[in-house]
């Protein structure tokens, strides 16, 4: 089932949480609402769920084409999973999952046996067989999250909405659970929208990523497209590490390529104040200035612990500090030490001069 | 009177290995003697006196004190007032706590302040307020008189005064509890299709039941023991508008010490029962919140 929101506005007093937001989520997809805190992503999710209402007369929420803006959360056919699980603390796992069925009106309520059967099937689906009689407090964080998921699924929602589903878990469980959620999504194939502030999480499991900032949607697209072709400086900076450098006086290399890109679009060359964005893994370190693009640098620090090597560098032409990321093998080959002189070539740069935005690959010569 | 003793018991003993807490032996002995001496002198001794005096003329005279029709009427009235005030307080307390913790509205902090008013105000003033409102020379007194409705110097006045002094109990107990629990569970129930009443019955009420019971016990203890406010509106008509505390005072002023202490001992027993129930609820609550 599709989710469509159009021209939503939400203000809390003088604060604007959503500013004319429109979004269309395709049926059957796993979509991430990604953004920093205060970007409006949770507000958007809660408005779709009906837990919050958009400002009067400011657009609509449609589920499967039907306008549900005036319906309460219980009537929308949604399943909602809260960040802190919100399990009923006085009920067992079984009773928690059965809750949505037992509160139904008598003629819509399944029989006891049917409820038991459905709950047990869901317990199996979320891999919690045999834990039905436990209280929520007797479960780990990851288990509680899965109970919350099973409880939301028990009412057979047409759309699943998750608010920071892994936010309250520690790093290891988080990683496991998000892979599990991806697999789980393949199995149930339910239109799913989840909120996260963790770009790694969004890029890893979502079919589509919606990047939000400042009450607006910045960019929508599949993870790779959003990562490789960010639509704004905010998106570049939010998705992964990036070095922000001025174009500077560096005549060769990036500057030349950026010049060409800008020339093509605007008919002007870059000025010294224009900003360049370079991902650390797009910085190629060399001991010899073999390319005319090479920029001389000094090695400030070498971080060799971890699965990739990281080198802190300073450009000798502009004095700016930036980071490079490379494999441990390559790092060993280079044999870099603090204080060494070296050269770098930017493999891929993005240029952002005042409101316009270009990107370009740097051609090897 | 047993309250301080239970408090002390419920505090975990300091571990002797912590150097900061290893005060000299004499200091510990001194503090302990002071505390126990104080409790014995000011709490336990008077308690013993109440029962001692009550039984001074023998068991027969003790029970005869309760055969007096005025005493029976006073006991009945006390229970009636409590039986009306406590349920009303539960309804008011739950409604207020719900409104304050689950909704946002203007004047919320003012409302919370007003709930505490009966604690801040002297009970005598509370009684006088009702006399000024409903008394013969009060605001609506003449109208009531014209319609032959008696509030002051009658049972309704006593019930009103009791309600006034007990207003804060349940609400004060529930507001911090419900604030700590937040609204997530209620919202979850809402997304699962539960109605407002189902949410209250199946989610909110089970979560607040121990706090609610605790508030009810304290409210009941106060309702039965209230003297000041009730004294002002009662008119002290024997067998009609005397509650147990007022009856004790009358008997005492008539130098009928034995009977006064006999009724007082019954009030004391009720208080001790309240404290026992309160400790029991605290213990159960601690256990059930440990399980969570």
UniProtKB/TrEMBL annotation, chain A:
GO terms for molecular function: ABC-type sulfate transporter activity; ATP binding; ATP hydrolysis activity. Keywords: ATP-binding, Cell membrane, Membrane, Nucleotide-binding, Sulfate transport, Translocase, Transport. InterPro entries: AAA+_ATPase, ABC_SmlMolc_Importer, ABC_transporter-like_ATP-bd, ABC_transporter-like_CS, Mo/tungstate-bd_C_term_dom, P-loop_NTPase, Sulph_transpt1, TOBE-like. One of its GO terms (biological process) is quaternary ammonium group transport. The keyword Amino-acid biosynthesis does not apply. Residues 3-239 form the ABC transporter domain. PANTHER family: SPERMIDINE/PUTRESCINE IMPORT ATP-BINDING PROTEIN POTA, SPERMIDINE_PUTRESCINE IMPORT ATP-BINDING PROTEIN POTA. This is Sulfate ABC transporter. Gene3D superfamilies: P-loop containing nucleotide triphosphate hydrolases. GO terms for cellular component: ATP-binding cassette (ABC) transporter complex. It comes from Cephaloticoccus capnophilus. The keyword ATP-binding applies.
TrEMBL record, chain B:
Its main location: membrane. It comes from the Bacteria. Keywords: Cell inner membrane, Cell membrane, Membrane, Sulfate transport, Transmembrane, Transmembrane helix, Transport. GO terms for molecular function: ABC-type sulfate transporter activity. The chain crosses the membrane at residues 30-51, 71-98, 110-137, 149-171, 211-237, 257-277. PROSITE patterns: ABC_TM1. It is found in: Cell inner membrane. InterPro entries: CysW_permease, MetI-like, MetI-like_sf, Sulph_transpt2. GO terms for cellular component: plasma membrane. Residues 75-278 form the ABC transmembrane type-1 domain. It is a multi-pass membrane protein. It holds the Pfam family BPD_transp_1. SUPFAM superfamilies: MetI-like (SSF161098). The complex is composed of two ATP-binding proteins (CysA), two transmembrane proteins (CysT and CysW) and a solute-binding protein (CysP). PANTHER family: SULFATE TRANSPORT SYSTEM PERMEASE PROTEIN, SULFATE TRANSPORT SYSTEM PERMEASE PROTEIN CYSW. Part of the ABC transporter complex CysAWTP (TC 3.A.1.6.1) involved in sulfate/thiosulfate import. Probably responsible for the translocation of the substrate across the membrane. This is Sulfate transport system permease protein CysW. It comes from Cephaloticoccus capnophilus.
